[in-house]
Amino acid sequence: MDKKTLVLSMAPYNFAGAAMANLSALEIFATLGATVSFYSQDIPFRAPEMYRVGIRTVLRSGKSDAYPLSDYVNYGILVEQVIFDATNWLNADPNNKIVLYATYLFPFCMAMETAARILHSSFAGRIKCIITPAGSDIWQIGRQAPSVTKHLLESSVITRVVTYSDQFRNEIIDSTKINRPIFVIPPAIDTNKYHPITREKKIKLRITQGIGVKEFVIAHCSNNRPIKGLGHTLEIVWQFAKRSKISICLLLIGPVTEHLKYHLSQYGCSVENDTFIYRKQIENLKIICVGLRNNVHHWNVISDVAINTSLHDSFNISLGEFMACEIPILTTDVVGISKIIKEFNCGMVFPFSYNPIALDLEYCLPSKTPSKINLDNVVEWLEMISQDECQRRQLGEQGRMAIEKYCSYPIIMEQWQNLCCFSDENSVVERCVCHE
């Protein structure tokens, strides 16, 4: 990838985690010398960061009196703009090349597949189309539209399929039965932005946020959709608080969704929106809901443990950011990053029993919990780790080492450079991370 390459990208503009994962790849493309453009129907969540690293944002939306709220119309218009910009770039210099890059099959990869199909008729050999499926593409939408999902993943104009973890790669192959290699490249974690701080700075930050110096802080950061299993998070922390004599603070970072509201209401909490930081004291448990935040580093570093009870996760970039800040991890084993956590022993990965039907059931009926977690083991681990600061420090240091080995920018940059190489096509598979 070089200055002759134009990268045209689509991804969710309003998802914090997905936007960060997409931004990390686009930032790498820009660092490698490519010109990068992001296409969206609205201002993306990570717009300031995109601007700082030189990524151009192209905003377009369609108009239809018949279907005024149709995303399909909007992305049809965006595809038209992608084709227009790509054609101009390719016509300007015979050495120019195009990389179309999209995350989430529906609708973004579907839109880019259309653009690639149209462009290939005139510019075959000068275009690559790379797609990255999301978890919901497989466990939810993929089960509703299996033929469409398989077509996208096996499309002849899709050059590479990339995913964030071995675990999710295997799930895609098992569920779709596709016959093509899937490359594994984790999201890059900015270890300069996400880093540990001194004990003195941590104390000052806690005081600023109204959190006691001696409180045991358990942080949860996610998009707070039903798939994140917030009922399990709250139950684990509640049971821990009932057994413990120490003061505990549950820090909830992420948008105020109906799923979050419902589960908080079961504990007498009533949070309405992201505008104000919400606080609730229940005996020795304090719950703080900070809402959606662009910069979460100062919340991460004041935590003692990061908790995640996702029912499904292709990677979980939030846990990677906690690990870079040297925070121990407590998570279900279904997340893609759990393999790294177990390898470096930087927290507790606990087994989680589920089946695809249970995922949809829990999604539709948040009051039901068909999934199974051994609460006793998890709570016992929290009790142990809350009393041992030295072990927390050791687990945290091991977590940062794991991120530096597998997810740091230099490591991920080399993998993307190999994957996007236009020359020496036959050896790309050997040079890239294609796990079997």
Separation of the first and last Cα atoms: 26 Å
Beta-strand content bin: 15-25%
Total domain modules:
2
Class from secondary-structure proportions: alpha/beta
Which helices and strands occur, and which strands form pairs?
Elements: E1 5-10, H1 16-31, E2 35-40, H2 47-52, E3 56-59, H3 71-92, E4 97-103, H4 105-123, E5 127-132, H5 135-144, H6 146-154, E6 160-163, H7 166-176, E7 183-184, H8 199-208, E8 216-221, H9 230-243, E9 248-253, H10 258-265, E10 278-282, E11 285-291, H11 297-300, E12 305-308, H12 317-324, E13 329-332, H13 338-344, E14 347-350, H14 356-364, H15 375-386, H16 389-406, H17 409-419, H18 428-431
Parallel strand pairs: 1-2, 1-4, 2-3, 4-5, 5-6, 6-7, 8-9, 8-12, 9-11, 12-13, 13-14
Antiparallel strand pairs: 10-11
Helix pairs in contact: 1-17, 3-4, 5-6, 9-15, 12-16, 13-16
Descriptive report:
This protein has about 425 residues and is α/β, with parallel strands linked by helices. It folds into two domains: about 5-190 and about 410-430, Rossmann fold (3-Layer(aba) Sandwich), CATH 3.40.50.2000; about 200-405, Glycogen Phosphorylase B (Rossmann fold, 3-Layer(aba) Sandwich). Helix content is about 45%, strand content about 15%. It is built from 18 helices and 14 strands. The protein has helices at about 15-30, 45-50, 70-90, 105-125, 135-145, 145-155, 165-175, 200-210, 230-245, 260-265, 295-300, 315-325, 340-345, 355-365, 375-385, 390-405, 410-420, 430, and strands at about 5-10, 35-40, 55-60, 95-105, 125-130, 160-165, 185, 215-220, 250-255, 280, 285-290, 305-310, 330, 345-350. The strands form two sheets. A seven-stranded parallel β-sheet has the order 3-2-1-4-5-6-7, with helices on both faces. Strands 10-11-9-8-12-13-14 form a seven-stranded mixed β-sheet, with helices on both faces. Helix 13 links the parallel strand 13 and strand 14. The longest helix is centred in the N-terminal third of the chain and has 22 residues, at about 70-90. The chain is elongated, with a radius of gyration of 22 Å. About 45% of the residues are buried. The model is unreliable at about 365-370 and about 425-435 (pLDDT under 50).
